[in-house]
Amino acid sequence: MNAPTLASLLSAFFVRYLASERGVSHHTIVSYRDSIKLLLKFAAAQCKRSVDQLSVEDLTASLVLNFLTDLETNRANTTRTRNSRLAAIHSFFRYVAGREPALAALCSPVLAIPVKKATHPILGYLNEQELDQILTQVDRSAKNGERDYVLLSLLYDTGARIQELLDLAPCSFHLESPPFVRVLGKGRRSDEQEPLFQSRPGVRLGRHGARYILLKYLRQATISRPSLARAGISPHTFRHYAESRTMPSGSLINCRNAIP
């Protein structure tokens, strides 16, 4: 029997193993896909041939280590991103080693590449006055104004991850007393539902789009509240509450009319 090609292993890894056998989230599959795509482009450049001409044997531990170094030096990726890319590579090589024992000797050195320790920055926070100043910048009568207002409000009120909020559908909300929103776990979404937050009709707003929305209003709010000019404010910042916190003006109760 002929040895499996890199293309066939990759296809089986993504279509059968990740999607069917493990049932991982769409978000995870996309993340793994992007990581492997970057690795293959790097390997093709190093081996001086096209991606479709690569073999599993080309993806040596030495090449993977050079790829990880390139991520940090030439692409300016953080240690966290580097480790995320490595996790995807590890997952693929574990799959290959389990499916094709003859390739175990090739996979073992790659699987032995350790994650890199990273220093964790001090996480920022927003107090109520700063949050109110950001929300004040949103023109709720403008196109996408209500969308932006609800997104920023829910980020603060729920403490949810940005991806969890982007996966919400209108049916996730209960607006009768007491109002609440049902947030699914990390990486899960209700794909059969129309997304609540959309970049254009029917298209789910992505994390980069959500970050752009926040930074747009943050820049405007900084003019009248200079304390917001500090570095590190992102959608994740909204998960960290001020030490003494009451519900701000952007609470779910005040967002009723913005929910479709």
Write structural notes for this entry.
A hairpin with a 5-residue loop joins strand 1 and strand 2. The model is unreliable at 241-257 (pLDDT under 50). The protein folds into two domains: 6-111, DNA polymerase, domain 1 (Orthogonal Bundle); 128-258, no CATH class. The longest helix is centred in the N-terminal third of the chain and has 22 residues, at 26-47. The strands form two sheets. A two-stranded antiparallel sheet has the order 1-2. Helix 2 crosses helix 4. Helix content is 49%, strand content 3%. It is elongated, with a radius of gyration of 22 Å. It has helices spanning 6-22, 26-47, 61-73, 79-99, 104-111, 128-136, 145-158, 162-166, 207-224; strands at 173-174, 180-181, 198-200, 203-204. By secondary structure, it is mostly helical.
